[in-house]
Amino acid sequence: MPIDMLDKSTTDTAPALTPEVLRETAAIYEKVRHVIPEIEWPVHAPYVAAIQRLKVERKAIILAHNYQTPEIFHGIADLTGDSLALAREAAGTDVQTIVLCGVHFMAETAKLLNPSKTVLIPDLEAGCSLASSITGADVRLLKERYPGVPVVTYVNTSAEVKAESDICCTSANAVSVVESLDSDQVIFIPDEFLGRYVAGQTSKKIILWKGHCEVHEKFTAGDLRGYREQFKDIMVLAHPECPPDVLAEADYVGSTSGMINEVGSRRPRRVLMVTECSMSDNVAVEFPQIEFIRPCNLCPHMKKITLPKVLDSLQSMKHAVEIDPLVAERARQSVRRMLALGKQSTR
């Protein structure tokens, strides 16, 4: 493509940076200034302002996962958190359009819990290595091999896989979900490392699937030991999707929300979060007095979601997530069983 054509297509679609835009976004930038360099904000600000205005016109809300970049997470999102929390919170709103800044299985989960709403994902290619490691056909074969054994499925999976499962779980409630089942064996899919972590917390036999998150599996115990040598007073928090030797080196192992709560309650001087890099950026905004050491493994799928794509999604109302109604109803039941279990435990 000739350079003049490339420049024209870019300038035609990019919103303009004006003094009004800088005034509109000044408070947002003040919040994120220590994680977004000042030189970068003029690039983000026009998109942030345009998206903020357009979502009001569209009567839409924006959901952003913890692994989204700060300009999305803090700049345009109405609801933030992990995929299940986002879907549940969205169900309590009266809007008709949801823009999911995350990966495709998250948009599907939002659609499952908000069937009457339009759910948009800004990039259809925002996938997930863990979700793509297993299919509905794989689950059916597992059930043939282990007849009568219940299937517990991590929410980081497609609707098709959820539809073949008995109950879903998150990293926070995986152990309690497994313990709730009246069986001494459980098929746990698809994350092998999370399954091994669960197996260490229960007497039940856990049948594993060899699925991994490409971000979490990159971490090594040697990496963590190296950081401890460099930073003597560092606190290491790890997500249970990491390899077992990594978890053994951590000071705390838990879900995304658990890690954030631990940082808030302990207030260490230095923190290393063994998970996707943008989560450290987003948590650092809330705790500016804490130094966050970033190993910075980025999720290439999450990073497909950008401010220009979010703006385009709202302008064109694309890409709408659709799930086969029969698949959706069965998948919804596996999620609802987990949610019902949570309600029982709080009574």
Which short descriptors sum up this protein?
Rossmann fold; 347 residues; alpha/beta; four-stranded parallel β-sheet; disordered N terminus; 3 domains
Brief write-up:
This protein has 347 residues and is of the alpha/beta class. It is built from 16 helices and twelve strands.
Descriptive report:
The protein is α/β, with parallel strands linked by helices. The chain has 3 domains: 3-128 and 302-316, Rossmann fold, CATH 3.40.50.10800; 131-212 and 323-345, Rossmann fold, CATH 3.40.50.10800; 216-293, NadA-like (Rossmann fold), CATH 3.40.50. It contains 16 helices and 12 strands. The chain has helices spanning 3-13, 19-32, 41-57, 70-73, 83-91, 104-113, 136-145, 159-163, 174-180, 192-199, 221-230, 244-249, 256-266, 277-286, 307-316, 325-345, and strands at 60-65, 79-81, 97-101, 118-120, 151-154, 167-169, 185-189, 205-208, 234-238, 252-253, 270-274, 291-293. The strands form 3 sheets. The protein has a 4-stranded parallel sheet with strand order 2-1-3-4, sandwiched between helices. Strands 6-5-7-8 form a 4-stranded parallel sheet, with helices on both faces. A 4-stranded parallel sheet has the order 10-9-11-12, sandwiched between helices. α2 packs across α3 (41-57).
